[in-house]
Amino acid sequence: MRGYGKEEHFEFEVKTDVLGEVWTIFRRYSKFRELHDMMKGKYPEINALEFPPKKLFGNKSQKLAEERRVQLEAYLNNFIAVCLRNKASPLYPRKDKPFSKRTLCDFAPFFRKGIFESSVYQVV
């Protein structure tokens, strides 16, 4: 939980394993929603992914936050997997441009800001 009063919000710690490397991303729910909304227009397969719905009541509870973190983690892993399989996606691995953290950061502003933590040992 971050912020105070009206500015209080959850920042979700989501881990994704991409090509054997674990990355940790810290983002608000609204940033995940922006990513989803932006990409579903470009890549129709994204529409098929289950995205956690917005909650109007009880959205500050720890239980809901943990449930949503798990859902967002699953969503992000599925999102990246879909993009890695889509030949039209810049994330699709090519001989001249293999998939990397840099590729992911160039792909969408969501992945920028230097908030990556990388570990082969998965930070708990």
Summarize, please:
This protein has 124 residues and is of the alpha+beta class. The chain is built from 3 helices and 3 strands.
Radius of gyration: 15 Å
- Proportion in β-strands: 5-15%
Number of helical segments?
Answer: 3
Relative helix content: 25-40%
Structural class of the helices, strands and pairings? alpha+beta
* Apparent shape: globular
**Whole-number mean pLDDT:** 81
N/C terminus separation: 17 Å
Pick out the low-confidence regions.
Answer: 115-124
Biggest sheet, spatial arrangement of strands: 1-2-3
Instruction: Report on the biggest sheet.
Output: 3 strands, antiparallel
**Count of β-strands:** 3
Strand/helix succession:
EEHHHE
Give a structural overview.
This protein has helices at residues 29-42, 62-85, 101-107; strands at residues 12-18, 21-27, 117-119. 16% of the residues are buried. The chain contains three helices and three strands. Strand 1 and strand 2 form a beta hairpin. The protein is an alpha+beta fold and 124 residues long. It is globular, with a radius of gyration of 15 Å. A three-stranded antiparallel sheet has the order 1-2-3.
Index terms:
single chain; 124 residues; alpha+beta; three-stranded antiparallel sheet; 3 helices; 36% helix; globular; disordered C terminus
